[in-house]
Amino acid sequence: MKHAKTHYFGLLLTAFLFMFSSNAFAQSSETIKGEVLDMSCYVAQEATGQGHKKCAQACLDKGLPAGILSENGMVYLLVEDHNAADAYKQAISNAAETVEVTGKVVEKDGIKSIVVEKVTVKG
Prior knowledge:
Elements: H1 2-21, E1 30-38, H2 39-45, H3 53-61, E2 66-70, E3 75-80, H4 85-92, E4 98-108, E5 111-121
Parallel strand pairs: 3-5
Antiparallel strand pairs: 1-2, 1-4, 2-3, 4-5
């Protein structure tokens, strides 16, 4: 009987570990439509739109942080997915343009972010 309990516990423990180590809890991708921002000018001066496009693109080209201002007014930091670096590069090459960004949305310590997997330019 003791052997059966040990075997049962071992199976239960294995299933538990598999569940937490697998993608069972992986986040699904979301798509956010909005304007690509340079976060420096947006945070400091609320700068957005086509009138700020040239400056925003220059800031993004210098490597300053990028974001997306969604249609519902939420701002997300754009984060490069190391497995999809070209998608992030496409996003930051479209300052002040409307794009759809697909990726995993993450909130950490009050910062909303999207890990960029795919970008579709809408403008």
